[in-house]
């Protein structure tokens, strides 16, 4: 055994380690504790580490998951909810608008149905449609600081997502549609 991250990583309890099976040498480590820098990444087998906590709140990170289709999309469950990053940890979006404030201890990304299954401590299991992230990737994600899914519908022909977002521009309600005519559009509903 070789000690990894000495002098770089926090001296706290390690909650989760996620190895990236598609990229040898890459791993994520989550720490407990109500402090900054609870999520770290290595790309060289532990020789160097970088915090990818970004704008996550200073709380314990209980679970880490990587999107099965896009390695840049990460999900974490914390003591206060669920967050997603579309840029491998540089920025984080809250996915907890319709969830109770409760610790999240497990996440599963269903590969066929594009759903995020959320296991909480004491509040049960929730399923979140990953359409929100589809919107964020093709929409105007760079301008959002926070995004909350208001409603989503999906059928064989089209997808419609109603999202409430906030950023430097203030607060906006947007609708995003895929399929139908035109095939892809995002428009401002309320500012």
Number of helices: 1
Question: What is the SS-derived class?
Answer: mainly beta
Portion in helices: under 10%
Strand order of the largest sheet: 1-2-3-4
Arithmetic mean pLDDT: 78
Shape: globular
Terminal Cα span: 56 Å
Major beta sheet, specifics? Answer: 4 strands, antiparallel
Q: What order do the helices and strands come in, and which of them pair?
A:
Layout: E1 14-19, E2 27-31, E3 39-42, E4 50-51, E5 61-66, E6 74-78, E7 81-85, E8 93-94, E9 104-110, E10 115-120, E11 125-129, H1 131-138, E12 146-154, E13 158-167, E14 170-179, E15 184-190
Antiparallel strand pairs: 1-2, 2-3, 3-4, 5-6, 6-7, 7-8, 9-10, 10-11, 12-13, 13-14, 14-15
Short description:
With 191 residues, the protein is mostly beta strands.
Describe this structure in words.
With 191 residues, the protein is mainly beta. The protein has one helix at residues 131-138, and strands at 14-19, 27-31, 39-42, 50-51, 61-66, 74-78, 81-85, 93-94, 104-110, 115-120, 125-129, 146-154, 158-167, 170-179, 184-190. Strands 1-2-3-4 form a four-stranded antiparallel beta sheet, with no helix packed on it. A hairpin with a 2-residue loop joins strand 6 (74-78) and strand 7 (81-85). The longest helix has 8 residues, at 131-138. The termini are far apart.
Question: Can you give keywords for this protein?
Answer:
191 residues, mainly beta, four-stranded antiparallel β-sheet, 1 helix, disordered C terminus
